[in-house]
Design brief:
By secondary structure, the protein is of the alpha/beta class. Helix content is about 30%, strand content about 25%.
Length: about 375
């Protein structure tokens, strides 16, 4: 017997399966057209089911932020990049204990971290590929000069059980509208070129030059030297992505289905989706609020508490009734997915499938503490 949206207990994340398929196909086609290797970031969906589809459509591997993500994705992928500083004994131990059939690579910006990583890789009887992380404007992680990149690459090249694999950067500072990114991308290209030139002159040309970020992903082919892209948000998209022109509003595949639970206050309605369903990240583009209705984008979630979201009705003639269901496009979809155990796949008003958000959280799914042959206390 079919299940329909009206039968679901809210709040719950739902994914329009046709929109999801379109988003996956669009990015795969873009990467193929421009000769870029696609290594999508799983932080958005955290689902082996969607990761497997990305790989089927041509992705060369996956990008992960956490070891939990990497361990879960090892069930469907044999080439995983952990794009996060490999710092801390627990993280290193889990890296070294990744299944031997999986090629593991990491991004790093510190020689001390490399020394510890080398020990962990040796104890784990494996070789780990290392990308030098370069700071090209985000000012979050990464070496700040080409000389430092060369020094890091040399350190990797000399370290036992490590292999220099190339250069990585995250252009997260480029958040302008897609049609207004020219200056930022031009500067990015100039800065990146200096790093590539310095490494090449040192006899360590980067085989991989990997750039991430959905907001700038559609123009990465314009940046000389880039041969790999690591977008994540594109699978579902969100309000921010739409506002900056990286997708159309109709490409927002994931929404939070919510129920109107109060209409007693004039000019507003209250839904059962608050911070525990939508997060509290402000819009990283022009606009206010914490989400907007898919079918009435002029209606925003203006305020929230833990279980309550306030819909501002001042800019619309639409008036919801008690018990009505609404679909909220969140400001930042990655946060929302992490708040739920399960995602519902729909076509129209009918529920077609469900899948677990299997890689959420931090705990290992490999029972590492009982592994008999893994490295100890790196």
């Amino acid at each position: 017997m079919a299940t329909y949206l009206e039968q679901l207990e809210t709040p719950v994340p739902i994914v329009d399966l046709d929109r999801l398929a379109h988003n996956l196909d669009r990015m795969a086609a873009y990467a193929t057209l421009h000769g870029l290797r696609l290594r999508p970031h799983v932080k958005t969906h955290k689902s082996p089911r969607i990761a497997a589809e990305q790989l089927r459509m041509g992705a060369v591997g996956l990008t992960c932020a956490t070891l939990r993500e990497a361990e879960v994705m090892a069930d469907v992928c044999t080439d995983i990049l952990v794009a996060y500083p490999p710092v801390g004994a627990a993280r290193l131990e889990r890296l070294a204990r990744m299944p031997q059939h999986v090629n593991v690579s990491v991004a790093a910006d510190d020689a001390q971290a490399l020394d510890a990583l080398s020990v962990a890789a040796r104890l784990g009887h494996r070789t780990i590929d290392v990308l030098v992380e370069a700071d090209l404007g985000m000012h979050r992680v990464g070496v700040a000069t080409p000389d430092r990149a060369v020094a890091m690459a040399r350190h990797i090249d000399r370290a036992p059980s490590l292999r220099f694999a190339g250069l990585q950067f995250y252009p997260g500072h480029i958040r302008a509208h897609v049609h207004e990114q020219d200056a930022g991308l031009a500067q990015l290209g100039r800065d990146l070129g200096m790093y590539i030139e310095a490494l090449t002159d040192a006899g360590l040309p980067p085989t991989t030059v990997s750039g991430g970020s959905t907001p700038a992903a559609w123009r990465m082919h314009e940046v000389p030297g880039v041969n790999e892209v690591r977008p994540g948000t594109y699978v579902y998209n969100d309000r921010t992505t739409a506002q900056i022109g990286a997708c159309h509003w109709e490409d927002c595949a994931l929404t939070v289905l919510a129920t109107v639970v109060s209409v007693s206050v004039k000019g507003q309605a209250v839904v059962d989706a608050g911070t525990k369903a939508l997060g509290r990240e402000p819009l990283r583009a022009e606009g206010d609020g914490y989400g907007a209705l898919l079918d009435h984008p002029e209606v925003i979630v203006s305020r929230m508490s833990e279980e309550h979201g306030i819909l501002d009705l001042s800019q619309t003639s639409w008036r919801p009734r008690l018990g009505d269901q609404v679909r909220i496009v969140p400001n930042h979809v990655c946060i929302v997915v992490h708040l739920f155990d399960e995602v519902i796949g729909v076509r129209g008003l009918a529920v077609e499938t469900r899948w677990d958000v299997a890689a959420r959280g931090r705990d290992s799914n490999r029972e590492l503490d009982r592994a008999p042959n893994g490295p100890r206390a790196v």
